[in-house]
Amino acid sequence: MTSAPSDPPVPAGPGGAFPAPPRRWLLRLVVSFVFTQGAVNMARPAVSYHALELGAGARAVGVITAVFALLPLVVAVPLGRHTDRRRCGPLLPVGAALIAAGCALSGTASSLVTLAVWSGVLGLGHLVFMIGAQSLVARQSGPGEHDRNFGHFTIGGSAGQLIGPVLAGLIVGGAGAGAGTDGAAAAAGSHAVSQHSSAVALFASGALSLCSYAALWRIEGRARSGSPAEPGDGRGKDAAPETPVPVARILRARGVPAGIFASLAVLSTTDVLTAYLPVVGEERGIAPGMVGLLLSLRAAASVLSRLALPAMTARLGRQRLLVVSCLAAGGLSALLAVPVPVWALGAALVVLGFFLGVGQPLTMTTVVRAAPERARSTALALRLTGNRLGQVAAPAGAGLLAGAAGAAAPFVLLGAVLVGASGTAARSPVRGEGPQPEPTARGESGTRVTHGTRRRTDTSN
Fold first, then answer.
1. Nearest CA among 58, 42, 108, 35 for reference residue 291
2. Which of 183-197, 247-261, 278-292 bottoms out in mean pLDDT, i.e. has the lowest?
3. Which of 195, 211, 199 is CA-nearest to residue 99?
4. What φ, ψ does residue 145 adopt, rounded to 5°?
5. Which residues of 12-41 are buried (b: 16+ CB within 10 A; e: fewer)?
6. Could you give the CA distance from residue 358 to residue 315 in angstroms, rounded to a whole number?
């Protein structure tokens, strides 16, 4: 018998929270992620164009892109520790507000230094939102549901990556194109309008981030006052606080290092592609609007791959799918360095986007299933730290390489990193490999129902 919506709340889980109604909380989380990820991916190309308008070269664009990840690199693990002990829902509105502030303040930047600082604030907001959101999915998903729920969650990210660059390209390119007349005065006027339009795109991305607040209600339910602590969780009335799981132990867990490295490689490729395709477009004479469309085609392909993720995982297994996707993405990334017609570049980006879309949800599941249950937020924070390391090192290295060999050269380096991640994943079997159990039906109160027995939602493996 299925439990009715009027069933009383279940006992508190980690951080004093119990799962909100299934489907509803995940849907609201995905919607809010569309807005915040759309804002970030609208702002990133706009920051690159704003930097170019302020006189930056390829190397300076690489440095500003790397600053996006510097502050998050410092705070990721402490924030993960905090989230392991407390509720993760409050991080979502805080992250959205920081994203909005970083976007708007970047639009006011009149120098490359201030632009880099506000880019760091943007990166901090993105990290705060991501730790809260990923921890929420890990905490409120039952056994066998992680691949599916992380896949659905990252569809929101892909949708944001789809709409963000298009909007940025339309605002930056459309306004600049509308200023064209004749002669030197037209060129100067076009530059002024373009600079103004990049600021408008950044202000618009800040407003887009704030739209996420419309979906951030009841994302994470609160436990009923006086609910008993979960047995054995160290939160009883007289229980002493648990000692945090050492970072070294988390990193030694089988599958965690490979998951972190694969995530680093995939995200670094996506990040550098978002930041450097505008520079490649400038070199090859591709209009900003077309660059935005190309980036959105890549994101649309990632949406398709994430929709198909449960079926692909059931057929190939998580490890094999991760190995194949990283290997294929590595080869396609290296091919982007070759000058080709725009239609061929678009086709390559669609296939690349499909394979890149698989990597993020698979590595989330890998890390969550391999880490100790009471340190899952810290493990996800370590994964995000690896991502930020990649976002610092990859753009900085890309900037140096682009300055010496052209803006397309970094894609060869990223291809090699992806191939290396594929090899690492092949040598590290993923915990829980094989067909996933069917998700158990849930009642509207967030409880799991099995053979007529009402149970608390479990996130153990």
1. 42
2. 183-197
3. 211
4. -105, -5
5. bbbbebbbbbbeebbebbbbbbbbbbbbbb
6. 14
Q: Is the whole model's pTM more than 0.85, yes or no? A: no
Which tokens go with 348?
């390559």
Strand partners, 18: 221
Task: Measure the CA–CA gap between 340 and 337, rounded to whole angstroms.
Answer: 9
Q: Contact, 223 vs 124, CB < 8 A?
A: no
Residue range 84-116, pLDDT digits in tens: 788 878 889 999 999 999 999 998 888 899 999
Q: Are 100 and 121 in contact (CB under 8 A)?
A: no
Phi–psi pair at 455, nearest 5 degrees: -130, 155
SS3 call for 255:
coil
Cα–Cα separations (whole angstroms), residue 399 to 67, 69, 122, 393: 13, 15, 20, 10
Q: Which residues contact 369 (CB under 8 A, 6 or more apart)?
A: 146, 255, 430, 431, 432, 461
Which of 193, 200, 129 is closest to 160 using CA atoms?
129
Residue-level pLDDT at 7: 35
What's the confidence (pLDDT) of residue 355?
Answer: 92
Both tokens assigned to 388: 């930020």
Residue 423 makes CB contacts below 8 A (sequence gap 6+) with none
DSSP letter for each residue of 33-85: HHHHHHHHHHHHHHHHHHHHHTT--HHHHHHHHHHHHHHHHHHHHHHHHHHHH
CA–CA distances in Å: residue 223 to residues 84, 227, 338:
16, 7, 56
Tokens 């520079």 belong to residue: 279
- Give the count of beta carbons closer than 10 Å to the beta carbon of residue 359: 29
Burial 213-232 (b: 16+ CB within 10 A, else e): eebbeebbbebeeebebbee
- pLDDT (average), residues 443-447: 39
Hey, is 259 helix, strand or coil? helix
Minimal CA–CA distance to 291: which of 272, 277, 271?
Answer: 277
CA distances from 79 to 76, 86, 138, 445 (A): 5, 10, 16, 29
Question: Nearest-CA neighbor of 275 among 122, 124, 386?
Answer: 122
The model's pLDDT over 15-54, given as tens digits with 9 standing for 90+, comes to 444 444 446 888 889 899 999 999 998 888 888 888 888 8
Q: How far apart are CA 395 and CA 61, in angstroms?
A: 8
Q: Are 374 and 361 in contact (CB under 8 A)?
A: no
- 46 vs 354: CA distance, rounded Å: 24
pLDDT at 99 (0 to 100): 95
